[in-house]
Amino acid sequence: MSRKGMGKKGTLNELITANKEVADELVIANKENADELIVANIGKAKHAAEELEKSEMLLKSVFNSSENLILVVDRDLRVLMSNWKSPIYADCTEFPIGSHCYEAFIHRDTPCEPCHVFGVFKTGKPIHAEYYNQYTKLFKEVNANPIFDNNNNVTMVVENVRDITEHKQAESELIKAKEKAEESDRLKSAFLTNMSHEIRTPMNGILGFAELLKEPNLTSDEQQDYIQTIQISGARMLNTINNIVDVSKIESGLMKVDMKETDINEKIEFTYKFFKPEVEIKGLQFLFKNSLPTKEACIKTDNEKVYAILTNLVKNAIKFTYEGSIEFGYEKKGEYLEFFVKDTGVGIPKNQTELIFERFRQGSESHYRGYEGSGLGLSIARSYVKMLGGEIWVESEKGIGSTFYFTIPYNAVSEEKIELINAVSAEHKEVEIKNLKVLIVEDDEISYSLLTRTLQKISYKVLHAITGVEAVEACRNNPDLDLVLMDIRMPVMDGNEATRQIRQFNRDIIIIAQTAYAFPGDSEKAIEAGCNDYISKPINKTLLYELIKKHCNKSKIC
Fold it and tell me: Quick check: 5 pLDDT over 60?
């Protein structure tokens, strides 16, 4: 072989060797890269698996922590996912993974909630529903939503069930509250309409017949008839106003109980005498029953409230009775006195025997009702009975009549106290009021004129003061004054302050407070200021005379 040929062969061998070395290095390098790639891919796969596991755990945790029941169901109605341990289903059905969503119902004695899965698979539309389970006593809200594949076929349904019992109860309470408020508004509107009628009607009688009295050439009978009509209308309007004031006191918590010795027999007899003329005018028989002897009939209670209750019940009996009789009285039953007012009137329908005791309610509330009244009397009576620790109810039959009952505790008074009360009462009845020197403290001219005429028969001289300052000066300048009728509400100085100043130099003069503001606490303030007693306007002549007799006797000026 030539040197030239040998040179080419050597070069080729070298090239082969070099390429082999390169190839070996490349194989080694690729193997290393492949190993690194495999390791990297394994790491990524492991990391992905870990992340997937974390995601699944998070999803499961969130899924199971929901207070709602969540079911994921496939087309075979197999449970794919479920949080059946949710509190909402603690007392209901278990839905383990892989079970048929209706298998849980097979062995139950009572059915659980309805399933809406069928409807979603059938229509492909979400379903929202609410229902009440009478066995678990719970209200539920269901939202069932479809999950679609790429071909828009429903492959799964997710059902979410929420307990809405509290929401429904709150909603029910709101509805009831709304209905109650609407009823209250309706009743108040009816009440205001009725009050307008009850005030304007007697006012029409007062003003109208007062105008007729101005006409000349009236006969004596006509004058007396007009005057009687004015008196009746005035009494009716005063009763309405008193009822409104009493309700205001009760609602504001100002109405207090004044417990003192009371002769129940005397109270029954007084009520009988008071209403007897009115009952006889209607041609009714009027009866009363006192079941206890005098010594046992004296108890400790609120005298005025017992009388107010009796008055309201007897008034109602007279109003609704056209023929037959009215009877009232009481019996002792255990630790209570049970009073009754029985009539043969129109009666009360069964569905109204409780309604009539409600405030602003009447048996008939239409514009065509045939009876006057504010609809407050029975409500006031019930409030008073409760204050006294008793109960009130009615038994009635439509067209036959009604019997109202109420009870008060029988708190007996000792015989010694009864004898003392009777002695004092008898002493007062024997007192004759002599001519008095009187100071009337009154800033209203009409009220002053009325009091002056009221006291004409028992006074020989009447002085007048318009303010508290004038009253103090009049008493200082006239130490021989026997009686002061002190108005409480006046300009410059009120009656209580005037009384306090008068008492600094005259402890013996009789001072009787008189005011139109007859609220609880007013009388106590007047007595505390130094007044001997208290009377509210409009002033009852008989009551005023009785107060004057009582205090004149104590001070020995009569």
Answer: no
How far is residue 70 from each of residues 23, 142, 363, 410, measured CA to CA in Å?
A: 62, 10, 55, 66
Residue that is written with structure tokens 């004596």 in the block: 220
Helix, strand, or coil (residue 84): coil
H/E element holding 345? none
CA distance 484 to 476: 12
pLDDT at 71: 79
Structure confidence at residue 365 (pLDDT): 45
Task: Please check whether residue 259 is in contact with residue 409, taking contact to mean a CB–CB distance below 8 angstroms.
Answer: no
Q: Which residues pair with 536 in a beta bridge?
A: 515
pLDDT digits (tens, 9 = 90+) for 364-394: 444 334 455 556 888 889 999 999 999 999 9
Angular region, 171: left φ>0, alpha ψ -120 to 50, beta rest: alpha
pLDDT tens figures, 513-534:
988 765 656 778 888 999 999 8
Side chain identity at residue 58, one-letter code: L
Helix axes 303-319, 377-387, angle to 10 degrees: 150
Whether residue 518 contacts residue 540, with contact meaning beta carbons closer than 8 Å, is answered with: no
Give yes or no for a cis peptide into 538 (omega within 30° of 0): yes
Whole-number Å distance between alpha carbons of 253 and 166: 35
- Residue 240 predicted with pLDDT over 90: no
The answer, yes or no, to whether residue 82 has pLDDT greater than 80, is: no
Question: What is the rounded CA–CA span in Å between residue 218 and residue 184?
Answer: 49
Q: Sort strands 533-536 and 138-148 into parallel, antiparallel or unpaired.
A: unpaired
**pTM exceeds cut of 0.70:** no
Quote the CA–CA distance of 117 and 127 in Å, as a whole number.
9
Q: Residue 92 CB: number of other CB atoms within 10 A? A: 20
Give the contacts of 496 (CB within 8 A, at least 6 positions apart): 488, 513, 525, 526, 529, 531
Q: Where are the beta strands (DSSP E) in 181-290?
A: 260-263, 285-289
State residue 413 phi and psi, 5-degree precision.
-100, 145
pLDDT grade for 174, boundaries at 50, 70 and 90: confident
Check: CB of residue 326 under 8 Å from CB of residue 284. Answer: yes
Number of H helices and E strands in the chain, helices first, is: 14, 17
CB of 68 within 8 A of CB of 92?
Answer: no
Do residues 344 and 403 make contact, with C-beta atoms less than 8 angstroms apart? no
DSSP string, 360-421: T--S--STT------S-HHHHHHHHHHHTT--EEEEEETTTEEEEEEEEE--BPPHHHHHHH
Distance, in Å, from the CA atom of 269 to the CA atom of 266, rounded to the nearest integer, reads 5
Instruction: Note the maximum CA span of the chain.
Output: 181
